[in-house]
Structures
1.
Amino acid sequence: MHRSELIQLLLDKKDNSRYLEIGIKRCDNLFRIKSKVKVGVDPAYQICRKYKFKKAFGFEKVELYRKYSDDFFNENPDGILNLGFNVVFIDGLHNFQQSLNDTLNSLKYISHDGFIILHDCNPISEARATPVERSYDEIQVKIENNEIEGWDGGWNGDVWKTIIYLRSIRSDLEIFTIDSDQGLGVIKFGDSQLLPFNKFEEVKVLDYQFLEKDRKNLLNLVSPSEGLARLK
Ligand SMILES: C[S@@+](CC[C@H](N)C(=O)[O-])C[C@H]1O[C@@H](n2cnc3c(N)ncnc32)[C@H](O)[C@@H]1O
């Protein structure tokens, strides 16, 4: 299952749906999604011509913000966050701290029956799971210096730690990961049993081997069909 398909399925449950995407890049996913309101945030987005046309003719309300997500949430430009969202898709900087910030901030603005979809939760190799501290540039430097053994061009970073940490500190959230499209984390309000990793620093130092040993349990990994059944 592709991320666009999952997001659309969730938005289609609502009339007048409102959608926020953090990290939009060339707007490929944002362009595919149909929603009454679409908001995109990215400090370096580009818009393809087809998308410009659609925006100009006003088929949908689309607002794009050239900002880092932390600034977007701090500033709440145009009061746009007050709209509230049915689905937030998080796909900005793929590291633990930033994906956690984005998730905690988004939780303040989703409806009680809303969803957060977190991309990149299930890296399939240590190379893809290479962590960075602050930016994409760090990965670029490592690639140029041939520092990442087994590099195949795909990068998920350590977003997986956000799933483990939230599953350890938030018993008011139901969290699972659909084993598709690099790991689609699904986060919604609901009761759950806690995992025992409740300190940020403790989770931050976990390595890829730790994930590899117990991935199904740590990520609450489910097949696409099981994921869809849970979302019914
Ligand atoms: C993987 S791409 C997004 C792809 C897009 N979601 C899609 O599915 O078509 C990640 C994007 O996140 C952006 N990004 C990096 N750090 C960010 C941040 N702190 N806040 C928002 N976006 C960020 C990058 O500029 C990049 O365009």
Note: The mean pLDDT is 95.
2.
Amino acid sequence: MSMPTTLRVIREEHRALKAILQSLHLLIQQGPGENETSFFRSLRAMLFYIDRYPERLHHPKETELLFPKVREKDTGVAEAVSELDHDHEASELAVRQLQLQLLGWEFLGESERLGFVTAFENYKRAYLAHMELEESAIFPSALQHLSTEDWVEIDAAFTSNRDPLTGHHPAEGVFAELFSRIVREAPQPIGLG
Ligand SMILES: [Fe+2]
Ligand SMILES: [Fe+2]
């Protein structure tokens, strides 16, 4: 069977998120240099994107639509699912905290830098491990245990759920724009690809 829509969308969103995390990492390593204004603006835009898009739209779709269905069919994933659900709760708070720590660095200066960088690296590591666990534990189980009827149902719910969450189709356009602005404005040699 070809890759179900739900898993394809999740995987695409993971890829976009990995690119953003990697760009953030490179940018942070590079530091503000001569152009402090655009440096902090780029970092703020990227964290804002993560907060508004993956945290508020991607995670809920997994927690509400995919995970319960897989757990219902395969009790073997119960532990992974509860760990992943817990990550979802923790990382929404973590990205807010990061945004505040970034403002600390921007407005209070160097003394706040290390705290932000350390927090970001922890966030990035946890997030990559999280996506890895979803793809290694949930995906194979879902492919093995969900029937064609399950997928029809979950793909439909998944697709329609993308609309009501925030009045969505326009929002996706706005996020697409924010995303390409990030790519455009991030100082060289940052690229998303
Ligand atoms: Fe997730
Ligand atoms: Fe995910």
Note: The helical segments are 5-30, 36-73, 78-108, 113-145, 148-161, 168-185.
3.
Amino acid sequence: MENFASRYQSVLVPTIFVPWAKELIRRVDMKGGERVLDLGCGTGVVSRQIAEAGLVPSALTGVDHNPDMLGVARALFSDDGIKAQWIEADAAALPFDDDAFDVAFCQQALQFFPDRPAALKELRRVMKPGGRVVFCVQKGLDLNPMLRAQASALDAYVGEGAGAAVRAICSLPDEEVLRHLFEGAGFRAIDVDEVTLELHHPDARAFAAGAMGGMHTGDKLSGLADSKIDLAIDAFLTGLGKLFDGTAMRFPHVSNVVVAEA
Ligand SMILES: C[S@@+](CC[C@H](N)C(=O)[O-])C[C@H]1O[C@@H](n2cnc3c(N)ncnc32)[C@H](O)[C@@H]1O
């Protein structure tokens, strides 16, 4: 049976997470032979983009606490000369020695860590001094109209509070709070940049269905009658307003990008 991780991979990853992974990789001047950590790796999109960019780390390690996500990552990564490993662990208790990594990526995951200060301290411990980390963390619903439309459609049709899963994506929007978290963990040269990617999908109905199904609410959504799922999709598309042209959709997707040194 299709699980949450494979639904997440099918629509959300190509539309949203591949463009962000390219953006993050562009911001770190990676050299061959470095040891790279992909923290909260999900289905491994950042690691695959590193490989696709022709960068060859000496070791590539994806960490996630969800075994289904790691299963998809493992299945999709073709090693082509890159030594990759996929480790199930909590971000606040990483099973690695001190100074184990030169570069770390953490794409749209910090906001979900239950103890963010502990996770960042743990990341700093496993980074070599001077190692670079790059994160992206979604800004608020006010700046992200696609997520706003999705939250209201889920609240209205999948049940009260279903939109909470979308609001959680936007639960760490503030630049100063982020800066403070990184400073508290001992990172330096901290740069926080608000970045907007203009994203699109040629088939907005397919995106709406995939986006709502690719969240933890997906099981609840697929349990609804088809007519109700259609209503939820209609509400999502109506909520997009002018971002939906009747077939395709274009939307700004806004995150803080943090680059810092251990
Ligand atoms: C929105 S997904 C992002 C995944 C991936 N970085 C991407 O760009 O597609 C957030 C990921 O963080 C993981 N995660 C959440 N809390 C975690 C924790 N405490 N420790 C490790 N991973 C965690 C989730 O399982 C999920 O795969």
Note: The chain has ten helices and seven strands.
